[in-house]
Specification:
Oligomer: single chain
Shape: globular
Structural class: alpha/beta
CATH superfamily: Flavodoxin domain
Helix content: 40-55%
Number of strands: 7
């Protein structure tokens, strides 16, 4: 079965560091999923050309044209990669508007990689203070590693740490999607009610703890 990955980027400039990071993540996710023996189809959604249609949607409640297609792609995705530039210490309004117009429940249980770009590393907390709460509210499953890229991460002085973060996040997403190495099923958990319904005898507890007699 082909895994459908959608990469959503909200860059406003052309060229855009946000789009560059989105492309890096899309490529890394594709490699990570293929490495686990799965077929993958990666689609990209750029929000900049959809800005006017998003404003119309807010006013009318209806999506048309390319916006409707983009929303359908996201709703049908097995996983998402989402990338936003930072504005006023948070995600951009364009980015937020797109996820505001998604129908409720569209992202329930969907694995998501969150990422952001900004001019300085001082904005890196946007991942945990804005993006992660947003997608938790949307009931998506956010991978542990978020990816933040400042301007210097794309320069000649880059030490490769951005690529490492990208690869780690992509690998975590691939694990959530499953693959050739399935995890062992978790043991059944006993509830408090189960414990009171069938308590373990005290003598047995002592034997299991290594006691030789009951006193």
């Amino acid at each position: 079965m082909t895994q459908r990955i959608v990469v959503v980027s909200a860059g406003l400039s052309v060229p855009s560091s946000t789009k560059l990071l989105a492309d890096k993540l899309g490529d890394a996710v594709e490699r990570a999923v293929v490495a686990r023996g799965r077929e993958v189809d990666v689609q990209h959604v750029e929000l900049r050309p959809l800005a006017h249609q998003l404003a119309d949607h807010l006013l009318t409640g209806f999506a048309t044209g390319e916006l409707a297609n983009a929303l359908d792609l996201v709703k049908a995705a097995d996983a998402l990669v989402v990338v936003t530039p930072v504005f006023s210490a948070s995600y951009s309004g364009l980015f937020k508007t797109f996820f505001d117009v998604l129908e409720p429940g569209a992202l329930d249980g969907t694995p998501v990689v969150i990422a952001a770009t900004a001019g300085t590393a001082r904005h890196s907390l946007v991942l945990d203070h804005a993006l992660r709460p947003l997608f938790a509210y949307l009931r998506a499953v956010v991978v542990p590693t978020g990816v933040f890229a400042a301007s210097e991460d794309f320069g000649a002085s880059d030490d490769g740490s951005l690529d490492k973060r990208v690869q780690r996040a992509a690998g975590e997403l691939a694990v959530l999607l499953g693959g050739a190495t399935a995890a062992a099923p978790a043991p059944a958990r006993r509830s408090v009610a189960d414990e009171f319904a069938a308590p373990t005898p005290f003598e047995q507890l002592l034997r299991e703890a290594g006691g030789s007699s009951v006193r």
